[in-house]
Amino acid sequence: MTVRYLGGPTALLEIGGVRLLVDPTFDAPGEHPVGDRALTKTMDAVAGPDDLGPVDAVLLSHDQHPDNLDDGGRAYVERAPLTLSTEAAAERLGGTVRALPNWEHVELPRPGGGALRITGVPAQHGPDGTEHLTGPVTGFVLAGDGLPTTYVSGDNASLDVVREIAGRFAPLDVALLFAGAARTPLLDADLTLGSAAAAEAAAILGARQVVPLHFEGWAHFSQGRDTLAEPFAGFSGGFHLLDPGRQITL
């Protein structure tokens, strides 16, 4: 399995010959409106859509926030062969966007035979009882014969959700954890995992390898690259804090 980190939540995965793009964002830095508010992007994209090569599917945690799907990402989804996301995203975006409900799965054929199974798993974008403010979000678990079982958290802030996922899939080989402790004027609370919570999530999952995502590139992250290393200092597995554009094989 390879992971190429492209900044923010965006990563290009190749697992068992299947190529997946997580939460596509390609816009330049600047203000991105969300209703009567705005999120500020601070980092340029390190790759454009034409630099990625063919992709089999997009894994979209949600469509309602521009730090997970900006204008360039929306244009990409319009021409992607398949996008898996929430029911709300499928209704709003249409086209080849398909809802993947919690605990249901799809199988994508692998070039050499067999299949990659993609299961939708819960995600909670903030404290209990705030979904009506933040909207629905999903995560994903990837698995297949001879492949590393991989968790993509999406914008999840709940360790109880992580425990529920661990109850079905632990131990995990790889965990891609959205870990910027996102905060906005909408709520006085973390809307995604922070650094210490990400380390606790890795332990709950029994993860052997961890790659943080969505911890830099936007002004509303309250934690990031400089806070991640310490909580993972005692982590027994591999902890990979990638620079934008870097690729790692796990």
From TrEMBL:
Hydrolase: is it a keyword of this entry? Answer: yes
Q: What Gene3D superfamilies would the database entry show?
A: Ribonuclease Z/Hydroxyacylglutathione hydrolase-like
Q: Does the keyword Hydrolase apply?
A: yes
The record's InterPro entries line, in alphabetical order, gives: Metallo-B-lactamas (IPR001279), RibonucZ/Hydroxyglut_hydro (IPR036866), UPF0173_UPF0282_UlaG_hydrolase (IPR050114)
What GO annotations for molecular function exist for this entry?
hydrolase activity
Where the record annotates domain Metallo-beta-lactamase, the positions are 19-215
Give the keywords, sorted.
Hydrolase
Protein name in the entry: MBL fold metallo-hydrolase
Annotated organism of origin: Actinomadura montaniterrae
